[in-house]
Give the backbone structure.
Amino acid sequence: MWDTLTALAAHPWAYPAFSVVHLIGLGALFGGLLVFELRTLGARRELDPGALARLAIPTALAGFALCAVSGAAMFATQPQELWVNPALRVKLALIAVAGLNAAWFHWRGGVRAQDRLGRWQCLLSLGIWVAVIICGRWIAFV
């Protein structure tokens, strides 16, 4: 396995390719969450939240999977350098908080949680994911 990672790290196109996959995943993740959460916040009330969730949530989960796999691969190419980067550690902590918030939202009823607390959870989710994106960009500069 380490030989594969060493070869991957040495290949000039590997890291940029994983970065592109990561960006595509991020677009699917954030895009899926954005449309669902905007609906929960009151936008486009004519759209059925259940039907929207059946489209948006699998899209967001697929995007998360792409981000997780590509992010792990990028991390594996230079773990010592990346782990000491505070932006990466904050990003990972925020992703964990986002996951807990999502689990709580779905435990409360998910699509049926169109109440005040559900709206606050959606606002929190959007804020967390924007912060994750910011931290992800800062990794290169911190």
Observations:
- The CA atoms of residues 34 and 126 lie 7 Å apart.
- The mean pLDDT is 91.
- The chain has six helices and no strands.
- Helices lie at 2-10, 14-40, 49-77, 79-83, 86-107, 116-138.
